[in-house]
């Protein structure tokens, strides 16, 4: 069911410093920051040959990243995203297995403009898992 | 400098349950467990089309995963691994930038039989980063 690893998302306390480190020290391709007000984050995409790293920084009130950075002031891996072909079929299969889908259970449009869902970390080895329909 | 994301490593409290979940619920290709006594882990590789997930479970005394699971009983993402072409050149560039290399600073042979180094999480946004020479 799951396909490619679409991205690994890392919450960072200093977006400029983290971008400079990936660009200058690690020598990666780093895109300019993008504000995503609907998701409460500013995102910097790092393009690796086979997948992406997303650096996440809080934007506005009630950012989903703010609480994470309070608990993890140095930053940390926030979630991983797997691609699926049919997000509703994936959701129904997961729910039938007893896994909990976060929020209303209906897909939202994610930062890439595609339908996404998040799964409960307690059901997936402590990892917040995003599914994105591609 | 960094190339592909080689893998994301997830420490899990129940290797059999986590393997079954990735195979049966998420429909991924899951390989049989491999004991890696030199690294104090039993590993299950999950092969995605573009990268791998490594499920890690403690093996023997002094496993590097045991303390992580004590702090994170549900499991969690333990590290991410980037590929590099020349691990000694990568190490020297990182050290020159002020980043700390864990252990002796000399590459060890990792679970894939290739030279690896680990970088200090405090220098990389709270993420434990492995570099593997490919």
TrEMBL record, chains A, B:
Belongs to the methylmalonyl-CoA epimerase family. It comes from Falsigemmobacter intermedius. CDD domains: MMCE. Keywords: Cobalt, Isomerase, Metal-binding. Residues 4-134 form the VOC domain. It is an enzyme of class 5 (isomerase). GO terms for molecular function: metal ion binding; methylmalonyl-CoA epimerase activity. It comes from the Bacteria. It holds the Pfam family Glyoxalase_4. This is methylmalonyl-CoA epimerase. Its EC number is 5.1.99.1. The keyword rRNA-binding does not apply.
């Amino acid at each position: 069911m799951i396909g490619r690893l679409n991205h690994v998302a890392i919450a960072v306390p200093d977006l400029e410093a983290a971008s400079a480190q990936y660009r200058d020290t690690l020598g990666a391709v780093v895109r300019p920051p993008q504000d995503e007000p609907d998701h409460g984050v500013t995102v910097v995409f790092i393009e690796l040959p086979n997948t992406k790293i997303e650096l996440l920084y809080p934007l506005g009130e009630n950012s989903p990243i703010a609480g994470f950075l309070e608990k993890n002031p140095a930053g940390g891996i926030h979630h991983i995203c797997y691609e699926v072909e049919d997000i509703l079929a994936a959701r129904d299969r997961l729910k039938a297995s007893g896994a909990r889908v976060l929020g209303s259970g209906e897909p939202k449009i994610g930062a890439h403009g595609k339908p996404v869902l998040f799964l409960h970390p307690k059901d997936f080895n402590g990892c917040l898992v995003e599914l994105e329909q591609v």
